[in-house]
Amino acid sequence: MSLTRSDLESRRLQQLILQAGGGVNFLSEAQLQESMRQTLGQLESSSDVWIFAYGSLIWNPIFRFAEQRVGTIYGWHRRFCMWVPRGRGTPENPGLVLGLDYGGSCRGIVYRIAANDVPSELLLLWRREMVVGSYIPRWVRVFDGTQKLDAIAFIINRRHRAYAGNISLETTVKSIATATGELGSCADYLMQTVNGLMTAGIQDKPLLRLHKRVLALQNGRANPGQL
């Protein structure tokens, strides 16, 4: 299954985290609201807001948006760099999901949320992306080929204990190939992201190579030591 709008409206995601135990802390509603306020800063209430998507927001955005475009950011790249012991994994076999990490560039989808929808839709987005503080909301400059857009992107928080750091390719492939949780498997998350990017006309070669290695391991055509 995938995360739904109802899951965010009912705060089911927070309940899953509480059930996981292990001392995981999540941000309260007041903390989420304050984070949103600080991120928006002096932005006028009548302004639309752009959101840069690079992972599951591409194929399962959930929030309402008025427009979408393909765009590129520089200084950040898409990488499986966040451990998840629930949702796409278990405490015994945590999964990995995508974050934006330092360096390189990233092509993704940039969504425009209409000003009237900003309060409700950003709150759902914050409940989804900022639930345990493993991301940092940051303004980035997106280039869509003709225009430069300022958008909010969720960058990996390198100080958070969920940050995977410089893990090996072998570890990455094994985790994605085997981890699964209440929201589905990491392999499905990867496949959905690859398909979403290709539907948008984006070919992420490192992600395609990773997908090929994951499939090879799942189908018994390779063992982790050969990756």
Provide a quick synopsis of the model.
With 227 residues, the chain is an alpha+beta fold.
Explain how this protein is built.
The protein has a 5-stranded mixed sheet with strand order 2-3-1-5-4. A two-stranded antiparallel sheet has the order 6-7. With 227 residues, it is of the alpha+beta class. The chain has helices at residues 5-9, 12-20, 29-40, 56-59, 118-129, 169-178, 186-199, 205-218; strands at 49-53, 67-84, 95-113, 135-143, 148-156, 180-181, 184-185. 35% of the residues lie in helices and 28% in strands. Helix 3 packs across helix 5 (118-129), helix 6 (169-178) crosses helix 8 (205-218) and helix 7 (186-199) packs antiparallel against helix 8. The model has no long low-confidence stretch (mean pLDDT 92). It has 8 helices and 7 strands. A hairpin with a 4-residue loop joins strand 4 and strand 5. The chain has a single domain, classed as Gamma-glutamyl cyclotransferase-like (Hypothetical upf0131 protein ytfp).
Helices and strands in order, then pairings?
Layout: H1 5-9, H2 12-20, H3 29-40, E1 49-53, H4 56-59, E2 67-84, E3 95-113, H5 118-129, E4 135-143, E5 148-156, H6 169-178, E6 180-181, E7 184-185, H7 186-199, H8 205-218
Helix pairs in contact: 3-5, 6-8, 7-8
The CATH architecture: Roll
What's the helix-strand series? HHHEHEEHEEHEEHH
Characterize the overall form: globular
Distance between the termini: 29 Å
What about the largest sheet? 5 strands, mixed
The figure for the number of domains is 1
